[in-house]
TrEMBL record:
Residues 64-156 form the Copper amine oxidase-like N-terminal domain. Keywords: Signal. It holds the Pfam family Cu_amine_oxidN1. This is Copper amine oxidase-like N-terminal domain-containing protein. PANTHER family: DUF3298 DOMAIN-CONTAINING PROTEIN (PTHR37841:SF1), GLR2918 PROTEIN (PTHR37841). Residues 1-37 form the signal peptide. InterPro entries: Cu_amine_oxidase-like_N, Mao_N_sf, WG_beta_rep. The keyword Signal applies. Gene3D superfamilies: Copper amine oxidase-like, N-terminal domain. It comes from Cohnella herbarum.
Amino acid sequence: MSQSRFLISHTRPSIRKGLLVAAAALLAVQISSFGHASAVSAATASATVSVDGVIQTGWTTATIKGATFLPAKSFAAAIGATVKWDQATKTTILTQGSRSVKLAANSNNAIVNGKSVALSAATQWKDGVLWVPAKVIGEQFGAKVTWDGATSTLTIAPRLHPFVSNGKQGYVNVFGEVAIPAKYDETNGFSEGLAIVTKYGNSGYINASGKSVIPVQYTQAYDFSDGLALVEKNGKAAYINARGETVLTPAYDEAFDFSGGLALVRTGDKFGYIDHSGKEVIPLQFEDAFYFSGGLAAVQIEGKYGYIDTTGKVVIPAVYQHAFDFSEGLGLVQAEGADGEGSFGYVNAKGELAIPASYAQGFVFSEGVAAVANEGVFSYVNRKGETVLSTKYADVGDFHDGLAYFEEDGKYGFINKKGDVAIKAQYDSVEPFDNGLARVINGTEAKLIDVQGKVVADAAAPAIEVPAPAEAQAAK
């Protein structure tokens, strides 16, 4: 039932990952934020800033000519870069690993790795602080920066990826440049600003600048989710916060990640949920249960699957042969079939079959579409159930970064949303794109490629046999 944290998974799986735990007292939860911005002029605008999924406190933004700005120090902290003032050239230098960006005040030019680059928005000097256009400078570091006007939220994703060099692992940016040197035995992707790294069999956490935030000490460690991470040390499991403080020691046979403010727990053959204080808010009563997504979680009651909300109320009756995570407002379900092999469809939050259960295979929604199959050939449907892309392939994946894998003649490549082959089928195995890069495997050799198909770095080869991509997805 447990899932290796080092098998890269770019969508939350429909299987759980957890730790067997020993009974102990429950402690209060304290969640730490990523960091703090320096004080700036009160004349600037206020907006929410999210870094790698964590809402920041005390950060200030400014809007100038439609672009969102951050103080250089705040921006650097968000992507894991350092800031240095060069007195001789009167410039500010932001450095992340082997990449440096030199910025002058009130200039729409930057020196990136020694080369002049034109910027679509100029830096601003205000009250003794250099302000940088977050999206424009973020692109120079390979970070993804987006602005949501509806919620006034600036979202920053550093986009660092594990790579391999001389038998050790570190992190590269989307250009393949070293951001954090390869000095670890194993690495994992970043989640909520922290990544699991392993040395000599034990694991700890580093931040995007490569600084050890929680020392290597755990025999098992899992990604941060909802501000907490599940770890094991000396045979005992616990939840820790981003400062490495133990905040919960669950008294259950097995505990799992937090999602939607609740963590799945199991004792014997019954599942329930606890909150961040350790309170059992949904009693152990389900035969099977999964993570919350979109405010709902799939559970099994008397052999059938339905959905509950965060209060434990059954909001979609348990009438399905199987149910999967909600994604983009719809949940993938498998209806009961007379032959035991039910068809797949999609329910909305009201429990209505928004897309009839008429497919032999189905995948969760991603980037506005879902892959479905009948008679062994896949197509993609939108949220109305309309076919928006037909393919000739018997094996495809979800869209991520605008690309989805496909299989042809035993090899894997990637198609775009028009169905055109963007990266030809040439790999034994592939993983979905995630934040600009994908891991591809031929034999025992693994590489990281960008969305153009260019190899940017060596990747860790799988330690165990990698399943065919379709088998690694839900909806079997």
